[in-house]
Write a structure and sequence with these properties.
This protein is of the alpha/beta class. It is built from 11 helices and 16 strands. The protein binds flavin-adenine dinucleotide (FAD) and uridine-5'-diphosphate.
């Protein structure tokens, strides 16, 4: 009945479905959740688009991806500038001259670099081999202790010494006064929310929600020639080689009868003792106004608590350490034998992908799959 069955209505699945339909293919999309858009799903509450599965800021250096995604939504000019709260002391993020000035009172980039060099030398790091050493060699011990150690250990549930250094390299370190969290040419939030963006991608495509592919695999497989699977790769194989590890996140959402709770979209709590990692105040992704430009009397906040994933939880962050990477490679070898199925996306490829990378990966797969 269908050329393609797409499992998962997140960005990867929606981009593929859109492109396949454009090529005249018949596509069915299924998702086990009661809504489309996967983890970028937004829901309107008190006039505010609430990011239900964690704050999502679109940012990219990939012009092709930017031109692609802006066909489906207009983006606002939001620039992410989280504030770090360490036991009541506030610091600018990412690590830049404002952070260094607040931490050490330094005025010039040269003074800041000197301070970091001193601390790196004192710690005796020459060739950083893990996240702790990488962080200290980038920003020194003071910033590591106050702004990285507690947050990272809460976020990943592991000691910084046991984590790969690439995780901290996601964050820019700048010797300029620039609080933009991302080094990206293009950045913003889709006006009308991410759900609308995905709705536009899926326009004209049949979508069945509340449908778990793995629970009804044989029947669904029989309906299509090929399958695009964007769920967890280990779940597809019924965990037969063991469980890939994820970090999960619990969101505690609150509607507050006040206009402004924290004055910023994101405040990170970087000490070890505060149980949450960060608080998101969603209205500031849209400058505190609804689509008609009205200010909003209430606000919605989400506290994020990081947790180890266990079967039944939502998998959020793949833990790309050596142990999990080699297990993933073993699953990938099994996946390659499934000739009718393509595994894609954050869960299907077990990759710590940002949205732009997921879109790029889906577009490159489309090029291969839909032109052959
Ligand atoms: P998903 O969005 O996870 O979609 C997979 C879909 O498959 C889901 O809807 C799921 O329900 C469905 N599914 C799974 N198994 C089955 C099954 N058996 N049957 C049917 N359906 C199934 N990226 C950024 O660029 N900027 C950010 O600020 C950012 N913030 C993030 C914050 C958090 C907390 C997290 C976790 C991620 C963040 N990301 C961010 C990354 C971004 O969420 C992902 O890159 C993107 O959403 C992945 O899209 P996807 O389609 O691969 O996966
Ligand atoms: N990080 C940190 N302190 C912060 C923010 C981030 O130590 O205030 C570290 C943490 O290890 C995190 C990594 O930097 O996992 C990458 O941060 P990013 O914001 O990119 O993580 P995301 O939530 O987008 O995955």
């Amino acid at each position: 009945m269908y050329d393609y069955l797409v499992v998962g209505a997140g960005l990867y699945g929606a981009v593929f479905a859109h492109e396949a339909r454009k090529k005249g293919k018949k596509v069915l999309v299924v998702d086990k959740r009661p809504h489309i858009a996967g983890n970028v799903y937004t829901e309107k509450l008190e006039g505010i688009h609430v990011h239900k599965y964690g704050a999502h800021i679109f940012h990219t250096n990939n012009e092709q991806v930017w031109n692609y995604v802006t066909q489906f939504a207009k983006f606002n000019r939001f620039t992410n500038s989280p504030v770090a709260n360490y036991k009541g002391e506030l610091y600018s993020l990412p690590f830049n001259m404002y952070t260094f000035h607040k931490m050490w009172g330094v005025i010039t980039p040269e003074e800041a670099q000197k301070k970091i060099e001193e601390q790196k030398k004192q710690a005796g790091i020459t060739n950083p081999g893990n996240l702790e050493e990488q962080a200290i060699s980038l920003v020194g011990t003071d910033i590591y202790e106050k702004l990285i150690k507690g947050y990272t250990e809460k976020q990943w549930g592991r000691a910084c010494k046991d984590l790969p250094s690439f995780i901290i390299k996601r964050l820019p370190v700048r010797f300029t006064f620039d609080n933009n969290y991302f080094n990206a040419l293009y950045q913003g939030i889709p006006v009308g929310g991410y759900t609308r963006l995905v709705e536009n991608l899926l326009d004209g495509i049949e979508v069945r929600l509340n449908t778990d592919y793995l629970e009804d695999k044989a029947a669904l497989d029989a309906m299509a020639d090929r399958v695009i699977y964007t769920g967890p790769i280990d779940a597809y194989f019924d965990y037969r080689l063991g469980y890939l590890e994820y970090r999960s996140v619990r969101f505690e959402n609150e509607v507050l009868d006040q206009e402004n709770f924290q004055g910023n979209a994101a405040v990170n709590y970087t000490d070890r003792e505060t149980p949450w990692t960060r608080i998101i105040e969603h209205k500031w992704f849209e400058f505190g106004r609804d689509e008609e430009g009205n200010t909003l009397p209430k606000t919605v906040i989400s506290r994020e608590y990081s947790a180890e994933w266990k079967p039944g939880d939502e998998p959020y962050y793949p833990v790309n350490d050596e142990k999990n990477e080699s297990l993933y490679q073993a699953y990938k070898a099994l996946a390659e034998k499934e000739s009718r199925v393509i595994f894609g996306g954050r869960l299907g490829e077990y990759r710590y992908y940002d949205m732009d990378a997921v879109i790029a990966s889906a577009l490159s797969m489309c090029k291969q799959e839909l032109t052959s």
